[in-house]
Amino acid sequence: MERVTIIGSGPAAWTSAIYTARAQLEPVVYEGAMTAENQALGTLPMGQLALTTEVENFPGFPIGDLEAYLDNAIAKDRRMMMPPHAKAGVSGPELVELMRQQAVNFGTRILSEDIVDVDFNTKPYKLFTSGGTALETQSVIIATGARANYMGLESENRFKNRGVSACAVCDGGLPRFRNKPLAVIGGGDSAVEEADYLTKFSPMVYLVHRRNELRASKIMVKRAMEHERINIIWNRVLAEVLGNDADGVTGMTLKSTIGEPDIQVAVAGVFLGIGHTPNTAFLKGKIDLQPNGYIVRPVPFRTNTSVPGVFAAGDVADDYYRQAISAAGTGCMAGLDAERYLASLE
Ligand code: NAP
């Protein structure tokens, strides 16, 4: 029987693994499976960080050449599979691989399978894997993250990391976007916040919304409407991302939702701000979820869930901050919460 089982493989999962491994709890991590289904859904192992390029805002990774450090930390064959090293800070895939390595160094065991079902009605808890096996565990840390929603266009997929992004805060400052017109798709708080953020770098940000009224909170709406560098395009949806192999994104085609002709707009970046979906399908009916699918953490500043001994860390319980560093922070908290829970059993 396991003492701690961690589900997920982003910053929250690896941080909780580092903490529980150092506490001699011998954690096992189910990092997810490399399947076509997970690829299509955006839920491949190593989470959302693995889908980004440079990371400049994770403390501890200042601008500098980290080649030698990375060569030491990551086996050559794994490194060869990664995109070229970013000179500024660290890249998302490198950062999450370094976290994984750090967890391995303390004795974490890793299985490349998904957890597809859980039984929290009996103790020890039972988890069922995509490989068809079942395991028993005294405690669980759920860190399965969330995935950004995309429109599902082929062209959108083609230009991911080359002008299409779902995170302005992560990618907006990259050189390819500087001083160029950009677009944000969506009308909620995230979309307005992303548009506002992008005005730091861009002379014109188009906010494309499918209706004629924003969903965002009043103060955010005011900010968008009054901002001289935000131009709201009403009643339109993204129909196609335009671009080429050399330049990446060069524009977009927008379809009208009220029967007007399509238009094309020149932009160097298209940012999706149409919400996120937490990876909690396997937890439905097993644990308390919010109406939007995120895990409920009933005690403020704790990672407890509605089930004793089951903790939630990272984006799977966070529809608000969604940063690698905040996920890592709650991963640490979940590791400590699990340790204290196990001590209380003894
Ligand atoms: P959201 O509130 O669900 O908004 C999603 C937006 O995307 C909506 O405007 C929606 O249009 C649009 N949308 C969804 N699917 C679409 C599609 N297929 N095509 C075109 N447009 C589509 O999500 P969010 O903005 O990520 O916010 C999530 C939560 O976090 C909210 O509670 C929000 O208040 C909170 N949040 C707060 C802040 C802040 O206070 N600073 C910042 C970020 C997020 P419709 O409006 O037509 O449905």
Structural description of this entry:
The strands form five sheets. Strands 1, 2, 5, 6, 7, 8 and 19 form a seven-stranded mixed β-sheet that branches. This protein has a five-stranded parallel β-sheet with strand order 10-17-11-12-13, covered by helices on one side. It has about 350 residues and is α/β, with parallel strands linked by helices. The protein has ten helices and 19 strands. It has two domains: about 1-150 and about 275-345, FAD/NAD(P)-binding domain (3-Layer(bba) Sandwich), CATH 3.50.50; about 155-270, 3-Layer(bba) Sandwich (FAD/NAD(P)-binding domain), CATH 3.50.50. The longest helix has 22 residues, at about 325-345. It binds NADP nicotinamide-adenine-dinucleotide phosphate (NAP). NADP nicotinamide-adenine-dinucleotide phosphate (NAP) binds near residues 210 and 211.
